[in-house]
Automatic annotation (TrEMBL):
Residues in GGDEF domain copies: 24-157
Pfam family name, one: EAL
SMART domains (alphabetical): EAL, GGDEF
Classification via InterPro entries: Cyclic-di-GMP_PDE-like, EAL_dom, EAL_sf, GGDEF_dom, Nucleotide_cyclase, Rev_trsase/Diguanyl_cyclase
Entry protein name: EAL domain-containing protein
Length: 417
């Protein structure tokens, strides 16, 4: 990446120098394609190179003829947008670039469907040198990835969380991270029947790092496989304690699609279930629908292997992705988790309420369970009961609790019954 920057930055600076003598602003966009690494690992580096060529063509077609596109790494482009009137024009360009990847890229007979995440900076609002604008566009990209948006503009007042690769790696290896359990309630019985496992990290210096910061960091590095394996085993260990204590709750575990390209992952998970003595039917894998775009075929194969052994599969954040219904035809899901942005807004917004009802109906027509995330008040809970939703989670039902505490409290309560 350093060598690419050494060639790109002088060229970008030359464009900025010309902009300084002309009217208007200049936009710098760092565009990173999610899923290139997986494509390279699975199909070879030549395939990755071909995808990058095709992706560059898509980006060039999406922007103006005066805009310049540079290849800045195995999965990264830099777009320079000279002579734009305001930040809205930069955001429109970002929107067009994101939309350019709605349909698969095709090289030979093999389609590749990824997505772009973009960080945006503006000359001279965010800086006057190519290097500073580039670095701040990278920070904006990281913020977009953290909040789950396709693009973000650099914000001066946002201080990024500093995460050290070595520290996170060592803490994963030394089992210094923690698991929190958040309960899910069955709306027909009113009972807690499941927990979602959530990773928590406090550094040795006492800093609490939010999952929204360290999980995307792990996604961008090679740590996500280690983090996922740690999460899987830690979650099953606590779930096994619940089962032994007479509280056989199910556990939902979030998985990164990056682990699906790892040889033998399905066998590893099935082996972990056997080691900890957790029935496969008590485990639910959660994966976001947007993540499926990385490599649907590989995801489907791995998850069908797990489904054949009884493991259940949930599509998380349903409704926020790009091709929900098309993917439902092929994806071996057993449940849909309706995203909190819909659930939170449905009271007082008739159209959103109708959308939530439609998602529940779709789930039931496909023989799937409907799970509503982000239930924060009694009114929302009652409405979901009326809608015939199956399961709910959210602060109104129960906040995440450290797994050790959750297990101890549940077993103690069960022993008094």
């Amino acid at each position: 990446m350093t060598s690419e920057r050494s060639h790109i930055l002088p060229a970008v600076q030359a464009i900025l120098d010309r902009t300084a003598n002309a009217e208007g602003m200049c936009g710098i966009l760092v565009i990173r394609l999610q899923g290139i690494r997986e494509a390279q690992l699975r199909f070879g580096f030549e395939f990755g190179s071909q995808i990058m060529l095709a992706a560059r063509e898509r980006i060039v077609e999406a922007v103006r003829h005066v805009d310049k596109i540079f290849v800045a790494g195995d999965d990264t482009f830099v777009a320079v947008l000279p002579a734009i009137r305001n930040r809205t024009h930069a955001l429109l360009a970002a929107t067009r670039i994101v939309g350019a990847f709605d349909s698969p890229l095709l090289r030979g007979e093999r389609p590749w469907h990824g997505r772009a995440v973009i960080g945006v900076t503006l000359y001279s609002e965010h800086g006057t040198t190519a290097e500073l604008l580039y670095r701040r566009a990278e920070l904006a990209h990281d913020e977009a990835l953290r909040v789950g948006e396709p693009f973000a503009v650099y914000q001066q007042d946002v201080t990024p969380i500093e995460i050290l690769y070595g520290e996170l790696r060592e803490d994963i290896e030394a089992n210094r991270l923690h698991v929190a359990f958040q309960p899910l309630c069955d709306l027909r019985t009113g009972e807690v029947v499941r927990v979602e496992s959530l990773a928590r990290w406090n550094t040795r210096s006492g800093v609490e790092v939010a999952p929204g910061d360290f999980v995307p960091f792990a996604e961008r590095s090679d740590l996500i496989v280690q983090l996922t394996r740690w999460s899987l085993n830690a979650s099953l260990r606590h779930t096994a304690a619940l089962h032994r204590g007479g509280c056989p709750l199910d556990v939902a575990i979030n998985l990164s699609p990056r682990v699906f390209v790892e040889q033998g992952f399905a066998e590893h998970m099935l082996g972990a279930l056997e080691i900890w003595g957790v029935p496969p039917e008590s485990a639910i894998i959660e994966i976001t629908e947007t993540a499926l775009l990385t490599d649907l075929d590989m995801s489907v194969r791995v998850l069908r292997r797990l489904r054949d052994h009884g493991v259940r599969v949930a599509i998380d954040d349903f409704g926020t992705g790009y091709a929900s219904f098309a993917y439902l035809r092929h994806f071996p899901a057993t449940e849909l988790k309706i995203d909190r942005t819909f659930v939170d807004a449905m009271i007082g917004d008739r159209r959103t309420e109708l959308l939530v009802q439609a998602m529940i109906d779709v789930a039931h027509r496909l023989g799937l369970e409907a799970v509503a995330e982000g239930v924060e008040n009694e009114e929302t809970l009652r409405r979901l009961v009326e809608m015939d939703c199956d399961l709910v989670q959210g602060y109104h039902v129960g906040r995440p609790v450290l797994a050790e505490t959750f297990v101890a409290e549940r077993i103690a309560a069960a022993s008094t019954v």
